[in-house]
Recover the amino acids of this structure.
């Protein structure tokens, strides 16, 4: 079971990274971005929540993907004026924080009764933090931070090609 969980987490992180890249890509048409978001929404991660509330799932998934990309982009642009590496690192940290925060807010607003059932008598807060988001948050944060130097190098190459 752990193997499948780790594969699922890797896929989820890849989709989150793609969301950021798609949102920040000014060369893509809005129709292409919309198609990507629909694909992202219908991925397997949202399935249990879609069974509970379609509008709640759609809103939560689209908001968390969009807001984490926006927040990471804003942080990068703000700090990049001073130091590119610090900007990439800060954006790498902000992204999972906003993603997880919006997901938790969506859970509270749309899925609290269901999450209480899923927690099976345990604290809903502990269930949300340790079962739903804890491992994913730490993995996504670590993954982003580890990839930061690669992103910096790609940005430098991109600037040289312009």
């Amino acid at each position: 079971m752990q193997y499948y969980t780790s594969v699922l987490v890797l896929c989820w992180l890849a989709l989150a990274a793609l969301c950021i890249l798609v949102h920040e890509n000014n060369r893509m048409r809005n129709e292409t971005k919309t198609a990507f978001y629909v694909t992202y929404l219908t991925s397997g991660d949202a399935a249990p929540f879609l069974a509970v509330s379609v509008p709640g799932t759609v809103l939560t998934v689209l908001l968390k993907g969009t807001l984490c990309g926006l927040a990471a982009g804003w942080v990068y642009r703000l700090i990049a004026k001073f130091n590119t590496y610090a900007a990439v690192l800060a954006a790498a940290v902000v992204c999972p924080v906003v993603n997880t925060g919006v997901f938790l807010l969506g859970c509270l607003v749309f899925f609290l009764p269901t999450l209480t059932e899923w927690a099976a008598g345990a604290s809903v807060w502990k269930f949300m933090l340790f079962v739903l988001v804890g491992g994913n948050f730490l993995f996504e944060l670590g993954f982003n931070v580890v990839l930061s130097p690669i992103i910096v190098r790609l940005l430098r190459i991109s600037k040289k090609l312009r």
Q: What stands out?
A: The mean pLDDT is 79. The helical segments are 2-24, 30-41, 47-50, 54-80, 84-110, 112-119, 124-161.
